[in-house]
């Protein structure tokens, strides 16, 4: 399944700098997004440490997952290591009623209090590519509780499978669904507001 990536890894291990640059260019964004979702204030340091660790471990890469998934997993591990080393608490908040973005969204009859406007495009990839929404989207993603931000980044923006995300975040499948639901509703509301008013 990953025959091409086996060849890529072999070329890098043999010292092919051109291939290494191509891999870094192709996967650097995903690694940066993973680091930002966990520890936004140390992204550069975390990604640098992840690349160092990945290059050291590449000769032993067993190709049980894609190269991208493997690099993202290393980045996540490095982010958690950074947090532990700096004594910052990791929390998958976003599961309590206080953080529920739907809390005031419905009226007594169960209908939307303020109906959402239609999306310009409901693909997260398309939203990230849209220059006019990019800055606003990043701003609102950063405001999400960490668990929601990590779940949405890994699932919607990076395309990891649910099982991989659950393993990386150490949450159950049902908790992942809750985190994703709340994150998506929050971002949906942001896009709806932006399209209706032009304000972020």
Keyphrases for this structure?
200 residues; mainly alpha; 66% helix; elongated
Summary?
Helices cover 66% and strands 0% of the residues. The chain has 9 helices and no strands. It starts with a helix and ends with a helix.
Strand content: under 5%
Find the count of extended strands (DSSP E, 2+ residues). 0
Q: End-to-end distance, in Å?
A: 43 Å
The number of helical runs is 9
**Any idea what the shape is?**
elongated
Rg over C-alpha atoms, rounded to the nearest angstrom: 19 Å
What structural category arises from helix and sheet content? mainly alpha
Give me the strand/helix succession.
Answer: HHHHHHHHH
Q: What does the largest sheet look like? A: none
Name the poorly predicted regions.
Answer: 94-98
Description:
The structure is a single chain. The chain is mostly helical and 200 residues long. Helix content is 66%, strand content 0%. It is built from 9 helices and no strands. Helix 2 (17-38) packs antiparallel against helix 7 (146-157), helix 3 (43-57) packs across helix 4 (67-85) and helix 7 (146-157) crosses helix 9 (173-197). Mean pLDDT is 77; it is low at 94-98.
């Amino acid at each position: 399944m990953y025959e091409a990536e086996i060849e890529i890894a072999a070329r890098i291990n043999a010292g092919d700098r051109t291939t290494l640059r191509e891999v870094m260019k192709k996967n650097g964004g995903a690694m940066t997004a993973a680091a930002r979702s966990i520890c936004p204030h140390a992204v550069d340091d975390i990604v640098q440490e992840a690349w160092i660790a990945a290059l050291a471990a590449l000769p032993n890469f067993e190709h049980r997952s894609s190269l991208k998934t493997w690099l993202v997993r290393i980045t996540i591990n490095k982010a958690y290591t950074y947090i532990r080393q700096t004594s910052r608490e990791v929390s998958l908040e976003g599961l309590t009623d206080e953080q529920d973005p739907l809390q005031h969204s419905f009226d007594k009859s169960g209908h939307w209090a303020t109906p959402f406007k239609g999306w310009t495009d409901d693909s997260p990839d398309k939203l990230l590519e849209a220059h006019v929404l990019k800055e606003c989207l990043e701003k609102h993603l950063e405001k999400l509780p960490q668990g929601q931000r990590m779940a949405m980044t890994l699932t919607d923006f990076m395309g990891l499978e649910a099982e991989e995300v659950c393993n990386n975040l150490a949450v159950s499948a049902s908790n992942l669904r809750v985190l994703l639901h709340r994150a998506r509703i929050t971002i949906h509301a942001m896009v709806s507001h932006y399209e209706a008013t032009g304000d972020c």
